[in-house]
Amino acid sequence: MLQKEVQLAVEKGEMLPLMEEFYTIQGEGYHTGTAAYFIRIGGCDVGCHWCDVKESWNAELHPPTNTDLIVANAKKYADTVVVTGGEPLTWDMTLLTSKLKVQNLKVHIETSGAYEVSGTWDWFCLSPKKNKLPVQSAYDIANELKVIIYNKHDFIFAEEQAAKVNPNAILFLQPEWSKKEEMTPLIVDYVMNNPKWRVSLQTHKYLNIP
After folding, report:
1. What CATH code is carried by the domain that includes residue 116?
2. What is the pLDDT along the chain (210 residues), one digit of tens a residue?
3. How far is CA 131 from the centre of its chain?
4. In sequence order, what are the beta bridge partners of 36?
5. Which residues are annotated as a binding site for S-adenosyl-L-methionine?
6. Which CA distances in Å does 12 have to 7, 29, 92, 93?
7. Structurally, how many domains does the chain consist of?
8. What are phi and psi of 189, to 5 degrees?
9. Which pLDDT score is estimated for 201?
10. Are strands 35-41 and 15-25 parallel, antiparallel or unpaired?
11. How far apart are CA 203 and CA 208, in angstroms?
């Protein structure tokens, strides 16, 4: 395809900058321990300094890939697909999710919520970041609010976000990996004193899997 045609296809969501795709165990949040096929989409301008996939930020490093091919790969492995990034809502997710749903796949997303919601989701994990706060539509439909705790001030941020999210969202606090030794005991104490919250851990890193 010519470059202009590729760019147009990406804008329509017919192609997406695919960084990687893999079958593994969900390591975080509500669905921890369950098998899922992960689709990691490149491109993110939220810019968290502790991000563990900074190589996802520049979408130009990741080849525009036809959504039909992405779906064909996903349906070989699992009945649950997790779309992550980068920031997947940078792009129009309508076509990708509709094609995944045609294959009777459950479709989850992990997002900062910084961009307007597109696509149809069976599970919406909202992980807000201070650099670029979620749009209202993300707060409204979140099934799960997952706040990363890097320092003590993040508990205040977590409560601010919990006040904005819909009342049915399940609330998680997760230590940032490099600060897990320091922050995990604080999170445990916080959850015991504020039991509306749950603890999330990056169990895939403890298991040494992707």
Report:
1. 3.20.20.70
2. 558 898 899 889 999 999 999 999 999 999 999 999 999 999 999 888 878 788 888 988 999 999 999 999 999 998 999 999 999 999 999 999 999 999 999 999 999 999 999 999 999 999 999 999 999 999 999 999 999 999 999 999 999 999 999 999 999 999 999 999 999 999 999 999 999 999 999 999 988 888
3. 16
4. 24
5. 50-52, 86, 127-129
6. 9, 31, 7, 9
7. 1
8. -60, -40
9. 96
10. antiparallel
11. 8
Instruction: Give which of 80, 48, 77 is closest to 154, Cα–Cα.
Output: 48
Rounded to whole angstroms, the Cα distance separating 127 from 142 reads 9
- Distance, CA of 189 to CA of 210 (rounded, Å): 29
Angle (CA) 111-114-120 rounded to 5° is 55
* Strands (E) located in the chain: 15-25, 35-41, 64-66, 80-84, 106-111, 123-126, 144-149, 170-175, 197-199
Hey, CA dihedral for 11, 126, 111, 32, is it positive or negative? negative
Summarize the annotated binding site for [4Fe-4S] cluster as residue ranges: 44, 48, 51
Q: Which residues are annotated as a binding site?
A: 25-27, 40, 44, 48, 50-52, 84, 86, 127-129, 210
Q: Annotated binding site for substrate: which residue ranges?
A: 25-27, 40, 84, 210
Q: What pLDDT was estimated at residue 55?
A: 86
Q: 31 φ, ψ to 5°? A: -95, 20
* Token output for 15: 């192609």
- Domain with 36 in it: 3-206
